[in-house]
Amino acid sequence: MEQRTLGADVCVGAVGLGCAGMSGAYGRSADEQSIATFRNALDAGITFIDTADHYGMGHNETLIGQALRPADRDRAVVSVKFGALFGVDGSVRGINGRPDAIPNFLGYSLQRLGTDYVDIYRPARLDPVVPIEETVGAVAEMVQKGYVRGIGLSEVGAETIRRAHAVHPITDVQIEYSLFSRDVEDEILPTCRELGIGVTAYGVLAQGMLTGTWRPSAGDARHRGHLPRFAAGNIETNLALVERLREIATSRSATVAQLAIAWVLAQGRVHRDIVALVGASRPRSIAEAVDAAGLRLTEDDLDAIEQAVPRGAVAGERYAPALLALLDSERTGGRR
Ligand SMILES: NC(=O)c1ccc[n+]([C@@H]2O[C@H](COP(=O)([O-])OP(=O)(O)OC[C@H]3O[C@@H](n4cnc5c(N)ncnc54)[C@H](OP(=O)(O)O)[C@@H]3O)[C@@H](O)[C@H]2O)c1
After folding, report:
1. Which tens digit of pLDDT belongs to each residue from 39-60?
2. What InterPro entries does the annotation carry (predicted)?
3. Phi then psi dihedrals of residue 17, to 5 deg
4. Residue 336 domain-assigned?
5. Closest C-alpha to ligand 1, atom 30
6. Count of domains for the chain
């Protein structure tokens, strides 16, 4: 698979694997199938593996610990998010980026993952009451001790990226970037490029909407119902955009999902600095994503896609208001 470079020297496959869906993000998942998906991904050259300590409240890290064979440990680049707080009932309780909490979070993650080190460790969100310098400084101590190899950020704006990078080189910023979410193009992506920081784009498939196979169902409403783009009134507009993409995808003998993945990869083709993180819990999703990495969109394709889904055409914000309020990326260097 084509390689991308994050930060100074972290070389990974252009498509990465997002593991949240293996721990109930979109409904029930079967561990055996998830493990097969994980191993297929590594075998196909997907090396960037994304998780968080809160995915399935630890289930996701434990699963990765089972799936990751010792022989594969060195070529996997395991990215872990920390600091998102939840109540026992799953309610959102904010962010903890305090320096004294970090060794504690990390110790539990290493134990669950069954590994001695995390390749990229990142705060899931900016803690609004802890200066980013303090959070990154504490992760940098973990780097010095050999428990962490690189430091990442998630959903932060340009100013936070600069402040963090001044404390310790940042490997990548993880942020939503897709045909439906393009605010990153204004300030965040140029800032990352100026500083030599990679971008790991998530939500490339708009949580499944940009696959062309997703359809509303009563069961799914529990999992995607809180996402504004899946709300009644917005779904119709967004699915109509997907249908416009289907025509272009068909002309390239590809699926809509592959077109959406290839579009994100095309945004990083020149600089080789963007990884398209695909959320997958089925081997079939991995097979499609791997083929998408080989789909080279022409200038004509890109123009047709731009006309089909112009920036800002999507209906609905990317998160509900309470979760949107946690995003530094939406406050500084994000939305304009
Ligand atoms: N830093 C952050 O704040 C943040 C936030 C959210 C997510 N993330 C990371 O990014 C990853 C992906 O993001 P995301 O969950 O927002 O979603 P996404 O990648 O936009 O969409 C995932 C959904 O698409 C489906 N899918 C994948 N390939 C498909 C295909 N070829 N055909 C049909 N359906 C397909 C998956 O189904 P199956 O599971 O059935 O394969 C899953 O339901 C997460 O797993 C997580 O690691 C990070």
Report:
1. 999 999 999 999 999 999 999 9
2. Aldo-Keto_reductase, NAD(P)_OxRdtase_dom_sf, NADP_OxRdtase_dom
3. -110, 120
4. no
5. 285
6. 1
